[in-house]
Amino acid sequence: MNYQPTLSDFHFILHEVLQAPARLQVLPTFTEVDADLMRQVLDEAGKFVGEVIAPLSRTGDEVGCQFANGQVTTPPGFKEAYQAFWQAGWPALACAPEDGGQGLPGVLEAVLYEMLSAANHGWTMAPGLLHGAYECIKHHASDELKARYLEKVATGEWLATMCLTEPHAGSDLGLVRTRAVPQTDGSYHLSGTKIFISGAEHDLSDNIIHLVLARLPDAPPGPKGLSLFLAPKYMPNGARNPALCERIEEKMGLHGSATCVMRFDEATGWIVGTPGRGLNAMFVMMNAARLHVALQGIGLLDAAWQKAHAYAQERRQMRAPGRDKSSMEASLIIEHPAMRRILDTQRAWIDGGRVLAYTTALELDIIKHHPESEPRIRAERWCSLVTPVLKAAWTEQAFKGSSECMQVFGGHGYVREWGIEQIVRDSRVSMIYEGTNEIQAIDLLVRKVLPDGGAGLTTLLQELSDKLVGTDVAAETFKTQVTVLCALTGKLVQASALDQQLPYWVADDYLRAVAVTLLAWAWVQIRQTPTGDTSGPESARWQHPEAALQHWILPEFAMRVQIISARLP
Amino acid sequence: MNYQPTLSDFHFILHEVLQAPARLQVLPTFTEVDADLMRQVLDEAGKFVGEVIAPLSRTGDEVGCQFANGQVTTPPGFKEAYQAFWQAGWPALACAPEDGGQGLPGVLEAVLYEMLSAANHGWTMAPGLLHGAYECIKHHASDELKARYLEKVATGEWLATMCLTEPHAGSDLGLVRTRAVPQTDGSYHLSGTKIFISGAEHDLSDNIIHLVLARLPDAPPGPKGLSLFLAPKYMPNGARNPALCERIEEKMGLHGSATCVMRFDEATGWIVGTPGRGLNAMFVMMNAARLHVALQGIGLLDAAWQKAHAYAQERRQMRAPGRDKSSMEASLIIEHPAMRRILDTQRAWIDGGRVLAYTTALELDIIKHHPESEPRIRAERWCSLVTPVLKAAWTEQAFKGSSECMQVFGGHGYVREWGIEQIVRDSRVSMIYEGTNEIQAIDLLVRKVLPDGGAGLTTLLQELSDKLVGTDVAAETFKTQVTVLCALTGKLVQASALDQQLPYWVADDYLRAVAVTLLAWAWVQIRQTPTGDTSGPESARWQHPEAALQHWILPEFAMRVQIISARLP
C-alpha cells in the first residue's frame, strides 16, 4: 500500500483552520490567489504525488542509488519521474514569474513537499534543495551568474546541491578547509573534500549546480573566513568541471538519494555574494530549509500512520476489552486501546504540526512579500522561534511515532513487506541533517530566547494567548502553559547570566516544553474552527487525536518544567 | 570498533552490589560456586565473546543469511564460531551435569548472553533458544524423547527452535491452525505453516530440533486446544523430515539470523507433555526467555554506548560552553552538555538494568534450586512482576537509547561505517518478539497486578522500601515513589473493577512508572555498595549516571502518575 495524500485534510487545515487565502490576499503579490486556485494546485499536486512519485518508494529503497566509475545511477523510474516533475512546473511553483516561476505562495510549495516526502523521501531529496539554491543565487549572485543559472535552477531543469560539510567539519562549519584560489579571469579554483552531499551526482538532470562553502587564501580561521561559490558539473562550454564524486555512502535508509563524497580538484567556481560572507548567504535560506525538514517529518509520520491505520482496520487478534466474551471471533486491532492510543497520538502530532508548519510557511510568505515592516517583523519573530522547534520536535516524532506505528504490525512490522520499517529508517536522518536536533535546541534557547532576555518568545506566546477567545479546557490548558513557560523563561534568563553552562543543560527540555505548548495552541485552532460540516472538529476524525493530545502528550509539559526547574538555583 | 565486554563492570555489579556468590551458596546445588569461580567463568566468556563473536557482527549484517533451494547459508565465520562455542561447553553452562551440562547458576548464563547479544545479536539468536528448549524437553518430554534429544540440546550440538507464530496468529496464539494427526506408532504428522521462526534452517549444527505448537484433530478452538510437539529436521534414521523452510524474511536488521517461513508437510513429531497443555509447557520458560530479551536490550545499549563514548572522546566540534573563548581549538564532543547527557542517561539504564536483570536471574536460580518454599514463592513473585517490566522498558531503551547514541555521531551515525545504525536496526526487533511491549504492559497490570488486588506488587515494593537503610536523597525518592505507586495501584484496582477497559488504557504508563521506580531502587543498591575501591560508587564512573537518573529519568514517574490519575474517576 502506497501513501496517498488525504486532500480533504490539507484543505481543511489550510483553508478552514488557517484561512490561508484571506491571509495571502493581503499581500500585493498574491491578490489573485484564492481558495479555488489553491485547491486546484493541491489537488493536481496530490494526483501527481500519488500516481507518479509514491509507487517508486519501495524500489528506491531496495535498488537504491548505484555508484560506478564516478557516476550515480538512480533507481528505476526516478529519472522519468523527475523529468515529468520539472516539466510540469512543480519546482518553479513558488519562484518569481520573471525567473521562469509560477509566482505562487511558498505555503503551497510547503504542502507539496510534505506530500512528496511522505510519498518518497529518497526521491524528494533531489528537488528538495532547489528552492534554497534559487533564493541564494537570486539574492547574492552576480548578474552574469544569474543570467546563466537562475532560470535553470528555478525551473528545476538543472538540479542543485549545498556543499558544506567536510570530514572534520559537521556541526562546526568554522572548521571548513576547502580552498578557493582566485584566477585571473575572475573565477576561482576550488580544492577540497566535501561529504554528506545529497544528490551531488546522479542521472536525473543534464547539469548539477553546486553551491560550495570554501576559504579564500587570505581568509581568517573560523566561520568568518568562509565564502560561497557556484561550481557547475558541466561548464558553459560543455567541459566536465572536476567536481567529482568519489563514492556514495551506505546508509541506514534514504537509499533513493545518493549521499556523495565530493572531491573538488581545482574545480572552477564563481563567488556568490561577498568574500567572507558565505555563511550569511546560506543562512538566509535556513528557516525555509529547516521548515522543509519539519515537513518531511510530518509527511513521513502521516505515511506511517496511513499504513498502521489500514492494517489495524483489517487485522484481527484477541478479544478487545469490553467485548462480548461469548464471541469467539478476535477483534480488529484498532479496537485494542494500546493500538488506538498509538494511532491517535500520531494524528495529534501530524495535524497539529501541519497547523504550525503551514503557519510558518505563510509567515515566510509575509516576510518576503508584505509591504509593511511591522507584519514582517512579527513574521520574522515567529519563524525565527518556531522553526527550530518544528524541526527538532517533529523529526523526532517522525522517527519515534513511525516506530510506534511499527508496533501495530507486530512481527510483520519488522519485515520489509509492509514498508513501515523503511519509514523508520528513512525518517531517522531528519533528526540529524540541517542542524542536529540538539543544535536546534541550542539555537532556540541560547541564540534566540536568551539574547533578548526572553522578550521575543514571551511576546509571541502572550499574543497567541491573548488572541484566544473561548474558555474550554483546551484553551485554558494552553493559557496556563504560556504563563508557566514565560515565568520559567524569565528565571532561565537570570540564571543563565550567572551560569554559562546552564542553558546548554536544559536546552532540549526547553525546546520540548515550547513544542508541546505550540501543539496545544495548534489544536485550539483546529477545535475553534467553525464549520457546518460533519467532518469538522466535532467529528471523531478530529476528536480522537485531540483527546490523545490531552491524555498522552500534554503531560510532558509539566515534566519538562520540573526538569528545568530542578536545575535552577 | 567492536564491542568488548567491560569485565570490571560485570564483576562490580554481580559480586559487590548483588553479593551473588553469597546468595547462591545458600542453594545446595551451588555450594561450590564462589566469587573466584564466577570471575573465572565470566573472564573466559568475555574473552571468547570479544575475540570470536564480536568481530563477526558487521559481516553478519552486511552479508546476512542467504536462502537458496530450501537451505540457509549463514554469514562467513558463523558456523566455525558456533562449533567452537558449543564445543567449549558454553550452551551447557547452566544445564544439569547429568544432562551433559556444567551445572552452573543461570545468572552466569544471563551475563554470558548479555555479552553475546551486545557483541553480535544476529549470531546469538541461534543458541538463544537452546536453554528454553532444554528445560522444556527436560520437564515435559517422555523418557524416550529425552534419551534421544536432551543431551544434544543441552550441549548445543544440535540447535533448537520454537515454532509458535502463524500468519494469522501472532500475539493471539489461540488462533494457531497447524494440525497434528496421530499415527499408529505413537508419533504425529504435523501440517501447517509457521512464520517468524528464528534459526529454523541453517548450516550451524548437524540437526535442528523444532518445538511446534499444533492442534490435535479433536481439540477445541482457542488456546486450550494446543499441544506441543518435537519434530527434528533429520529423523533418527537420518531421513529428512518434511519440516521445510520456504523462504526467509527480508528484515530491518538482525540479518545474521534467518527468520524462516516453515512449511510442515506431514512432518513427523512426538508430543511433549499432555495434549491440550502445549502453551503451559512453553510458558514455564517464558520468564527466562523474556529476561533474555531484556538482556539483549541491555547488551545492545551497552554496545551503542561504547561506540558513542569512544567517538565523543575523539571527535572535536565547536567550543563547549564555559571554555576559554580565546582558544581556537574545538572541544571534544563529550564536553558538550547535550552529548554528556545522552551518554550518562544510557549508562543509568544499562547499569541499573543489570542490577535488576541479574537479580531476576538469581531469583530464577532460587526458584529452581531453593529447598524451602517461602524463598521460592518470593522469587516467583519477583520474576512474575519484574520480568515484563524489564522486557518492555529495557528493549524500548535499547532502541531509543541507541538512536540517541547515533546523535553523538551526527551525520556519521547514519552511515554504516561506524556500526551504530546497525545497533538501532537490530535492537528494534526486541520490542516486538517474545510478546510485544504492549502485551508486556497488559501482562503486568491486567494479568498480574489486578487479579490479586495489587497485593503482590505492593508487597514486593514495600519490602524493598522497608529494607533500605540510609536516608539520602536517592533512597527517599525511591520510598516516596513506592508510596505513590502503591496508593495508585489501590485506586486502579477499585476503578478497574467498574471499568473493564480502563486498565488497558493505562497499562503502558503503569509499566513505565514501575520501571522507573525499580530503576531508582537499583541505583540505591549501587550507591549503597560499600567498597574501599576508588572505582566504587563515589567515582565519576558511577556518579555521572546516577546524576543523569535524578535529572532526566526519574521525572518521568510523576508524568506517568499524572496520566494514569487523569483517567481515574
Outline of the structure:
2 copies of one chain form a homodimer. With 569 residues, chain A is α+β, with helices and mostly antiparallel strands.
Helix content of chain A: 55-70%
Unreliable sequence segments of chain A? none
Instruction: Spell the H/E element sequence of chain A.
Output: HHHHEEHHHHHEEEEEEEHHHHHHHHHHHH
Tally of discrete structural domains of chain A: 3
For the terminal residues of chain A, how far apart are their CA atoms?
54 Å
Query: What structural class is derived from the secondary structure elements of chain A?
Result: alpha+beta
Strand residues, percent of chain A? 5-15%
Rounded to an integer in angstroms, the radius of gyration calculated over CA atoms of chain A is 24 Å
Interface with most residues: A-B, 72 and 72 residues
CATH architecture of the largest domain in chain A: Up-down Bundle
| CATH class wording of the largest domain in chain A | Mainly Alpha
In total, the number of strands of chain A is: 9
Quaternary organisation of the protein chains:
homodimer
Q: Looking at the structure, what is the overall shape of chain A? A: globular
Instruction: Quote the CATH topology of the largest domain in chain A.
Output: Butyryl-CoA Dehydrogenase, subunit A, domain 3
At the fourth CATH level, what is the homologous superfamily of the largest domain in chain A? Answer: Butyryl-CoA Dehydrogenase, subunit A, domain 3
How many strands, which pairing sense, and closed or not: the largest β-sheet of chain A?
Answer: 7 strands, mixed
Overall mean pLDDT score of chain A? Answer: 96
Helical segment tally of chain A?
A: 21
Cofactor (chains A, B): FAD
Keywords (chains A, B): FAD, Flavoprotein
Family (chains A, B): Belongs to the acyl-CoA dehydrogenase family.
Pfam family, one (chains A, B): Acyl-CoA_dh_M
